[in-house]
């Protein structure tokens, strides 16, 4: 028996205990799987306990065909019950909702399998199989009462990924700070000093701010120590849709001044032929 359970990234980061319920087939406790109210179970008189009967069909004069069929008196069970159990109605099993505890460990990978031995459907006729839980990740989003940026991290293995938006002034001139709230509530500080430029789509890697390394994946010599992956921050620079005329004139004059002094003309300096009219 297999089920899929999705938990938020926060639980993969911090570790968390969940309870989940499933409906499964269980042996009737009232009759202990016999199906009988008084415990008496008789051998079927029609099939002799075999569960099947042999029937002959005449195909033509002197020609017969034998067919093995399920006994209709005992429904193939080979046993008959005079007084059926009032709880399971003689079926020996019934459906019940069962609650289990799921322990999500720190750093556990998405798609991990948690096995509960002998917790699948039960029957008096076979040994119960295993219940297998496949762990998935819930779609990112804010939850009520929680306003953490880490809820929108994207995970890949041990690393997490985040996109930070900067204005043109911040990317070009620097002098800004950001505080990211991580999945356990601690703060990761990002920023640049005045004059430090951030290029569009530039990626900054912050060590030890990714996912915790799962205990089962740790190297033997570091077993038991807390290890973390990396946080990858990709910067997106937002340009203004339009600029006021006085500001445009000031910027244009300033850039023209410095371009003529130390700037590069990407058109002529690229070595490409000049455009001529056709």
Keywords:
278 residues; mainly beta; HSP40/DNAj peptide-binding domain; 2 domains; four-stranded mixed beta sheet; 15 strands; 35% strand
Report on the structure:
This protein has about 280 residues and is mainly β. It has 2 domains: about 1-40 and about 80-135, Sandwich (HSP40/DNAj peptide-binding domain), CATH 2.60.260; about 150-260, HSP40/DNAj peptide-binding domain (Sandwich). It has helices at about 10-15, 170-175, 245-260; strands spanning about 1-5, 15-25, 40-45, 50-60, 65-70, 80, 95-105, 115, 130-135, 155, 160-165, 175-180, 185-190, 205, 230-240. The protein has a 4-stranded mixed sheet with strand order 10-11-15-14. The protein has a 3-stranded mixed sheet with strand order 1-9-8. A two-stranded antiparallel sheet has the order 2-7.
Shape: elongated
| Helix residue percentage | 10-25%
- Would you count the extended β strands for me? 15
Q: Based on helices, strands and strand pairing, what is the structural class? A: mainly beta
As a whole number of angstroms, the C-alpha radius of gyration is 36 Å
The name of the CATH architecture of the largest domain is Sandwich
CATH superfamily grouping of the largest domain: Urease metallochaperone UreE, N-terminal domain
Stated plainly, the CATH topology of the largest domain is called: HSP40/DNAj peptide-binding domain
Distance between the termini: 74 Å
Mean pLDDT: 86
What percentage of amino acids are in beta strands?
35-45%
């Amino acid at each position: 028996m297999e089920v899929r359970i999705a938990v938020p990234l926060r639980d993969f980061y911090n570790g968390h205990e969940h309870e989940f319920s499933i409906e499964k087939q269980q042996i009737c406790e009232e009759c202990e799987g016999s199906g009988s109210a008084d415990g008496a179970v008789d051998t079927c008189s029609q099939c002799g306990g075999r569960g099947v009967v042999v029937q002959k069909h005449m195909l033509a004069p002197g020609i017969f065909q034998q067919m093995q069929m399920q006994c209709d008196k005992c429904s193939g069970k080979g046993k008959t019950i005079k007084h059926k159990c009032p709880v399971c109605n003689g079926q020996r099993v019934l459906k019940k909702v069962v609650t289990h505890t799921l322990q999500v460990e720190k750093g556990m990978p998405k798609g991990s399998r948690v096995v509960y031995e002998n917790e699948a459907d039960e029957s008096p006729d076979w040994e119960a199989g295993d219940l297998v839980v496949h762990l998935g990740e819930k779609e990112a989003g804010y939850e009520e009462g929680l306003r953490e940026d880490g809820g929108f991290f994207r995970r890949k293995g041990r690393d997490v990924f985040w996109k930070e938006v900067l204005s043109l002034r911040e990317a070009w001139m620097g002098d800004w700070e950001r505080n990211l709230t991580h999945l356990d509530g601690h703060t990761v500080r990002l920023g640049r000093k005045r004059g430090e430029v951030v290029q569009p789509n530039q990626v900054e890697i912050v060590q030890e701010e990714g996912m915790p390394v799962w205990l089962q994946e740790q190297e033997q010599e570091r077993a038991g120590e807390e290890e973390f992956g990396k946080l990858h921050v990709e910067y997106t620079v937002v340009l203004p849709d339009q600029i006021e005329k006085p500001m445009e004139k000031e910027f244009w004059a300033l850039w023209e001044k410095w371009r003529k002094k130390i700037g590069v003309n990407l058109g002529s300096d690229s070595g490409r032929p000049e455009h001529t009219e056709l």
